[in-house]
Design a protein that fits this description.
alpha+beta; 6-stranded antiparallel beta sheet; globular; 19 helices; 485 residues; 3-stranded antiparallel beta sheet; 2 domains
């Protein structure tokens, strides 16, 4: 792998220096020749092969190891959500796939990898100019790494989602090939642009149908664009309406355990006096990390309440706090989310992050890859209720966040959506990686597209076996699962 500063991790003999730890870093320079030369090392058709390693770790053991540093009372929710279907299992199994991808061929060309680029981690989000942008929107696992790993995780998720809604095998192959073709052709287009042009590139959610939905009928277009139209109503005002209630004339977070628990309920009556001090320290630490103009804006708000919120599938069990702040006489609410950032699932195979804080790793990776950044995005490290320090990144809870219910999509709707994912992943990679080398490696033919379709089908089979393994582990009492939460 070309992501480490030193590939040797074994200890030397007595008296000899111990090599520095591996660190995942981006590469510098751009070269068509680098991509052409990579073809001699790794044929494009080689990416189509998949077979589990002889010593492949037990997927349940990997999940249990990952859960060891999480809030234990919430971990059963994660397993319950992963059990719903092979697709929900896949969403939570980034650590499992990272271990598998470490045994697959790669060209040595490094990008700021998303690390968990399955298609449910793409969606709409607000730019600061108040346009709704489409692209990857989850960077919890981001790390410099092989561009192929993101492409394979994205493509396999398209195959698995297709199975989930009953699309026949031949149409799933086309779905995956066209998703990857969009990535390949977009990368070739980005290779012909200047650095600034690539960084300015983005696609508005309103443009998705025109760009990718040519085969959608009128009803399909309405269904496809509906979630993005609704996203504009997902603001802090709506969060307050959905998540709070009035207590003595003041909005307070509801008590809906285990998914939403006010901080005061976690502390209990005997420690209730600590709530204000603890929250104030968190808020002040966050404020200090903001740029001066953001500090000025943030200072127009005052803290009101704090709660623990369960989010996602793969993230369940990590610490996630939400904060309610208000301005202008108790109106004008702002709801922030502080989400724990743990080590990326890619680090055991690519090297440690160069940043001491995993919150900083997430934020810097997001700034590198995402087309638009939340106004309040930042990172911090804080002492938590367990007496240990934890890394967090902070952003607005809801700011036009749009997600699509893939289980209700038609074939052509999923086709349009996955093509949009392919284009936006290429845009993210082109900003941080050698887009000339990647474009030269991929070429103009469909060899790579077909290879990834073969890989995706084979890996989807493996994912189904892993999903069944989790079901058996729950049935045998190896791991606890809480269903329907």
């Amino acid at each position: 792998m070309s992501t480490s500063s030193n590939p040797n991790s074994a200890l030397r003999g007595p008296g000899l220096p111990v090599p520095e730890p591996r660190v995942a870093r981006l590469m510098s320079g751009e070269s068509w020749e680098r991509g052409r030369a990579a073809r001699a090392e790794v044929r494009r058709s080689d990416h189509g092969e998949w077979a589990p390693a002889v010593d492949r770790p037990d997927p349940v053991a990997l999940l249990r190891a990952q859960a060891a540093t999480r809030v234990q009372e919430l971990v059963p929710i994660r397993y319950g959500r992963m059990l719903v279907s092979p697709f929900t299992f896949y969403r939570g199994a980034a650590a499992v796939m990272a271990a598998d991808l470490a045994h697959t061929p790669d060209t040595g060309i490094v990008v700021q990898a998303c690390g968990d680029a399955h298609i449910s981690n793409f969606g709409g989000f607000a730019a600061q100019d108040r346009r709704l942008i489409f692209g990857p929107n989850d960077f919890d696992e981001t790390l410099p790494g092989p561009w192929e790993w993101d492409v394979k995780r994205m493509a396999a998720s398209a195959e698995i989602a297709g199975r989930d809604i009953g699309i026949p095998a031949d149409r799933r192959r086309r779905l995956v090939r066209d998703c990857v073709r969009e990535y390949r052709e977009a990368m070739r287009g980005f290779a012909g642009e200047s650095h600034l042009e690539v960084w300015y590139e983005r696609i508005n959610a309103s443009e998705l149908v025109d760009h990718f939905g040519g085969r959608l009928g009128k009803r399909g277009r309405i269904l496809f664009t509906k979630p993005f139209a609704k996203a504009r109503r997902k603001t802090s005002l709506r969060a307050v309406a959905r998540l709070t209630e009035q207590v003595d004339g003041t909005p307070r977070f509801r008590h809906v355990p285990p998914l939403l628990v006010p901080f005061r309920e976690l502390l209990g009556p005997s420690r209730a006096h600590q709530e204000a001090d603890y929250a104030r320290s968190l808020i002040e630490e966050y404020r200090r990390g903001l740029e001066a103009d953001r500090q000025y804006l943030f200072d127009t708000y005052r803290f009101v309440d704090m709660a623990r919120k369960v989010v996602g599938v793969g993230s369940v069990g990590t610490r996630a706090w939400i904060f309610l702040l208000v301005g202008r006489g108790g109106r004008d609410p702002l709801v922030l989310q502080a989400k724990e950032a743990q080590a990326s699932v890619l680090e055991p195979y690519l090297g440690a992050s160069e940043f001491a804080s995993h919150g900083e790793r997430v934020v810097r990776g997001q700034r590198m890859a995402q087309a638009a950044i939340d106004l309040f995005l930042n990172w911090q490290r804080n002492m938590d209720l367990d007496g240990q320090e934890h890394d967090f990144y902070v952003r607005q809870l809801w700011d036009w966040k749009a997600s699509v219910d893939l289980s209700k999509m038609s074939y052509w709707g999923l086709h349009a959506y996955t093509r949009a994912c392919g284009w936006s992943l290429a845009r993210a990679h082109a900003r941080s990686g050698d887009r000339l080398a990647i474009a030269a490696y991929l070429g103009a033919g469909r060899s790579f597209d077909s290879a990834i379709a073969r890989f995706s089908s084979a890996y989807a089979d493996q994912n189904e076996r892993d999903h069944q393994r989790l079901a058996e582990a729950v049935a045998a009492g190896e791991v606890p699962a809480l269903h329907g939460v």
